[in-house]
Amino acid sequence: MTQEQQLAKQVLAHPKFQRMAKQKSILGWTFSAIMFFVYVGFIWVIGTDPKLLGTQVHEGSIITLGIYAGVAMIIFAFLITLVYVWLANGKYEDMTQEVVKEVMGAQK
């Protein structure tokens, strides 16, 4: 086993890393569930009351509530992804680097 493989094995086995990985997984699944329910809600409204999303925003306008709802979903998906990436590349990456430093310090 190479030194890199040994280091990786120690990092993966470290309790702080495992705790961080669990937190990151819970965050990812939570955001996925939120997006799932947003999309299912949109499809549910289309299936149960399609006229609602076809309602014109203003009298004589070609813009409907469905357009706003679709744009809002896209923006929401972008924002929730942005938050996840910000946390994953910030807080969780810092935690990972801390564990790597601890493991490398223990090797010296």
UniProtKB/TrEMBL annotation:
Question: InterPro entries per the record?
Answer: DUF485, Inner_membrane_assoc
Where are its TM segments located? 26-47, 67-87
Keyword terms: Membrane, Transmembrane, Transmembrane helix
Q: Name one GO cellular component term.
A: plasma membrane
Indicate what this protein is called per its UniProt record: Inner membrane protein yjcH
What is the originating organism of this protein?
Alysiella crassa
